[in-house]
Amino acid sequence: MALSATSRARFNLSEARIMLLEATPLGMQVLVQILSGFGAKDIVRATNTTEARDYLDVNQFDLMVVDTLGPEGHGYDFVHWLRRSEFKMNRHVPVLMTTGHTRAADVQRARDCGAHFIMAKPLTAIGVLERILWIAREGRQFVECDRYVGPDRRFRDIELPPGHPRRRRTDKIIQSALAADAAGGEALSKVAS
User: Fold this and answer.
1) Residues of the chain where predicted confidence (pLDDT) is lower than 70
2) CA–CA distance from 74 to each of 23, 34, 79, 127, 175 (Å)?
3) Is residue 63 part of a domain?
C-alpha cells in the first residue's frame, strides 16, 4: 500500500504519545516537524539514552522513533535494553529506528535488538508515515525467549513495505537466472558473471 504524495487521505496522531531519541538537533527538528504534520502533539524528546530511560519511568508511549546513535550503536543497545526492561508498560511499544546507513548488518542488528523497522536518512514525511502504517497494519506477535525479545522476526510471503523501489541484488540475479533457464538458454553461471 504505497501512499501517493498527492493523496488527500488524512492521518491524525493527535492522541499518540511519541518519544524521539535523536542526538542531533537537525535530526530532532526534522522528526518533530514530520510527526507534528500528522497531528502529533505529545512528543517527548530525548537526546541520549539516559534521558530516554528517565522518561520511561513516568510515561507510557504509543510509538518510539530511535536513532542508531552513531557508529557505536547506542540506539540498538537502548532498544535491546527496553525489550528486556522492567518498564512493562513500554516493553512492547512499536519502535521505528533511523540511521544514516542501512548496510545489511545494520538491518540485521535492528531486527535482532527488537525494533519493528529501520529507515535510512534523509527521512521524508511520506516515508515515515508509510512505515508507521506498515508497523500498525502488520500487528506482529511479540516473542519473549532467552535470546530474543521483540516483534516476531519471521515473515511469510509478504511483499516489501511500501516505498521500497528496488529489490536486493541477489533477487535480481535469481530472477534473471530463472528467466534465462526458462528461455532454454544459459545457466546461472552466465547470469552471475
Assistant:
1) 1-10, 155-193
2) 11, 23, 9, 24, 38
3) yes
What pLDDT is stored for residue 155 in this prediction? 57
Sole residue written with cell 502529533: 40
How many domains are contained in the chain? 1
Inside any domain, residue 191: no
The predicted structure's pLDDT at residue 189? 40
Domain ranges, residue 63 = 17-151
Burial 54-90 (b: 16+ CB within 10 A, else e): ebbeeeebebbbbbbbeeebbbbebbbbbbeeebeeb
Q: E-assigned strands of 61-157? A: 63-67, 95-99, 117-120, 142-144, 149-151
Q: Which candidate, 13, 38, 28, 19, places its Cα nearest to that of 127?
A: 38
Provide the CATH number for the domain around residue 99.
3.40.50.2300
d(CA 145, CA 13): 32
